[in-house]
Amino acid sequence: MDPSGLRISGARFRDELNLAHIQFAHPLHLVGCALDELFDLSGAALKELSLQHSRTHRVKLYGAAISGDVLAPDLDADGAVDAIQVHIDGRLDLRNAKLRNADGPALNLDGAKITGCVFAGGMEADGEVRAIGVQIGEQLDLRASKLRNAQGYALILNAAEIANSVFAQGLEADGEINAVRIRNPGQFDIRNCKLRRPDGIALGLDGGTTGDLYAGGLEVEGEFRAVGVHFVGQVDLTDAKLGHAGAGALTLDGADITEALFARGLEADGQVSAMEIRIAGRFDLTNAKLRHTAADVLVLDGSRVGELVAGGLEADGQVRAVGAHIGGTVDFRSAKLRNDGDTSLNLESASIKKLMLDSLNVRGGVSLYRATITDLSTDANPPGPLVATGWEVTDIHGPLRERWHAARQWLESSPETSVQPWHALAAVYERNGDPTGAKRLRLAAASRVTRQSPLLPKLLRCVYGAVVGYGYYPLLAAAWLIVVVLTGSIVVAANRNDFVPNRDATNAAATVYLEQTHMKVPDAPQIKPLHYTLSAVLPTAVGNATSDWNIKSTWVSFVLTSLKLIAWVLTALLVAGVSGLLRKA
Predict the structure, then answer these.
(1) How far is it, in rounded angstroms, from Cα 395 to Cα 108?
(2) Which of 9-18, 239-248, 562-571 has the lowest mean pLDDT?
(3) Residue from 96, 110, 168 nearest 139 by CA
(4) Domain map (residue ranges) of the chain
(5) Rounded distance between C-alpha atoms, residue 499 and residue 228, angstroms
(6) What is the pTM of this model?
């Protein structure tokens, strides 16, 4: 036998070619041949196999052992190519092959072991391409291939182990690509692919481990799932278009990304879910467009992300990151979030180092309920209505830092009754050296409590607020004391005829003597309203002018007694406020 093996060119085999279990330690080349029936190499042992440019009906390589390459570029197979558990100690070349099998798998590599590369660029397959548990020693190349099995799986790589990279740029698939539990430490490159499975999963990578995922320009009709995947590197979805209206467009729940997730310019018609995802670096959604009006459009609940950048993001539906931990910046500057009648941005219980809401356009609400924020940056008109009960803010930046009234206006947009957010921001103003702003926010909080109170407590709180500013402005009591004194003075002056000098017996006898001797009796003393009122009303007044006069009018006596009681209460409040004993509401 020629060491170069057996080479047959241009032959046609009308009947079955059965070489099952043959032991042929030389290359077997069937070049440009036509095999009308089954070509059976089950259990065979060959040094090399070539079917390049050949046309076959069905090829069976079940359990075959090829010690070299299997070369089948431009193969045209009108039936299944069955290579279950084949062992190829070299490369498998299916470039530009055309495989068709209407009744089942077009190519079956389940359990195969291939020590070299698998080249299938430009391959066209009508029917399922299966490679469950396949082991590939180098790379898998599916660039520009076309896989069609619209009602089922177009490509199955479940539990596949690929030692290097998967290159599938420009691949087109009608049907599901399922690569659950795949293992490949190199790249997984699906840039500019077009994957279609509108009624289900178009691409599934659940539970896999891979290196960098490059999917820029990817177009998907159906769900892209990568639940629990460990990406040793980055994930790039720049300018990808994902569509699965009314359901999940992208699901990354529980995924672990050791570097960054880039999704700049991403367009998704359906939910993007990344619950409990771990991203060591940045999650970049700059200028992305997300649409899912039926429910949450972006879900990051329980995630741990280094940085979330969403400047210019447009989202129809709720963006939520409940319980998320963001170690760096969360940037929503110039984003547009729309969720009519409900919350547009939900960061409930999230922990964020820096939250940037400058120029954020929201149609819906913003929930920062129980969020912990180290630095908060907004413009002069922050997005609302705001729910922020239980939040913790260390510092604020932007116009709100100097404009406490803008902060009050933002907080007043809240539909909730709690005033804890007011006090949390007041503490920030106090730390930043603006005690006036802090006091006014606390006063606004107290006023809000009053408006929300039942009738009787509301009346009492209204009085307390008017008299001492809910304890924050105790000097108001001094102003009210002045009003009391002026009121008393006016009453005394207007009713001076009701005040009669109080003369003792000696003065009375002297007056009688002067009258009897026709001598001039001194004029009766004139009451001094202010002096009398100060003595009669204020507890701290000097002098005792009230003992010199009797009041004939009962109602005047009642008014002055009432004013005295009010003055005593006001004095007590004033002293308590100045000494710091007055309770602040």
Answers:
(1) 61
(2) 562-571
(3) 168
(4) 1-186, 476-579
(5) 93
(6) 0.84
